[in-house]
Request: fold
Amino acid sequence: MICSVVIVIIIMLLFAPEILPLSFIITLAQIPYASSQPSPFSSTDNQSNSGVPDYYYSSSNSLLTGINHSRGVNDGSSNIKSVILNFDDGFQNQYTYAKPILDKYGFKASFFVVCNYAGKPDRMSWQQITTLHDEGYDVESHSMNHNHMDIMTPEELNYEIGQSKQCLADHGINATIFAYPFDIGWNDPTIVNIVSKYYDLARTGNDPLTFLHCDGYKNHPQTDCRTYTDNGELTFANRYSVRSWGHDTVEIKDGFNDDETYNTFIEEVNSQNSYNNVGDGGAGGYKINAIPLITYHNVDYLTGSYHTDVDLFAQEMKYLHDNGFRVLTMRDLGYDDSTNSLYLVNATM
Ligand SMILES: [Zn+2]
Reply:
């Protein structure tokens, strides 16, 4: 029955797409999900989207036409889930194993490279890094030498932070985002002030979600993303401490059980549901308040800390693809000085 309905719809779309109401397509698209497949999400996952499964957004995004992505608000017709993928440290295996999987789905990601690691035996060459850049991947800075910045002199900090931007520029890459090695430095005003001289944003660990208005961190109440409070204190969440979720941290917690980690990944990427589309998008619009940023290190067939199995990574990317997630890069995050908040600048994919 479903097949024949689908065929009818395809014929109608081919010959008279303008007469087919969107709600009709959505209703029909829910049929396979509602009738034959158990939800992979927990009961809380659909609470914020009026019971409409997210699956009717196909990977082709064919129903997303007309969405206004500015300031993370669209036309209200959808519940779009987004994920930002990060790869740190410039490992060779990211190019060998992760890139082909990303390419298969047309996903782009951010690669935070360490300048003086480039060309080392297990790291990407400059040619590979520039190939990533040329193919539309986002290549950003992860310092010159990946050392602990909390024990550096200001001169050393300027070198690690500023020279790594110059180093990437020397290879034709305009880095505007910095990732703190070992997640150290985001809470140190001296370091943050130097980062702010060179970059628009900076990334650190380790929270499940980035809140675009920096207002979702229970232990750190904020109403916007100002870098300093009126008292001159550095805030927890701001444009220089954009929080990401460490995939490796979860693998360690899950005892390197890939089935467990896969389930945790699904929970993680769907956790945004509780915060998005909560009715403040204006004119019935959809509002994105929270996005998961996920950070990987090695993607290969080795075991142990900071190694994600290629098959697990492939499974995770397939999940994002099959469930219509928009996969974005850090470059899709902008900062609005007038509201002191982050927003999605270029979420056209
Ligand atoms: Zn690193």
About this structure: The chain has two domains: 2-38+52-69, 82-344. The pocket of zinc ion is lined by residues 88-89, 142, 146, 181 (CB under 6 Å). Confidence is low (pLDDT under 50) at residues 1-77. The chain is about 30% helix and 15% strand.
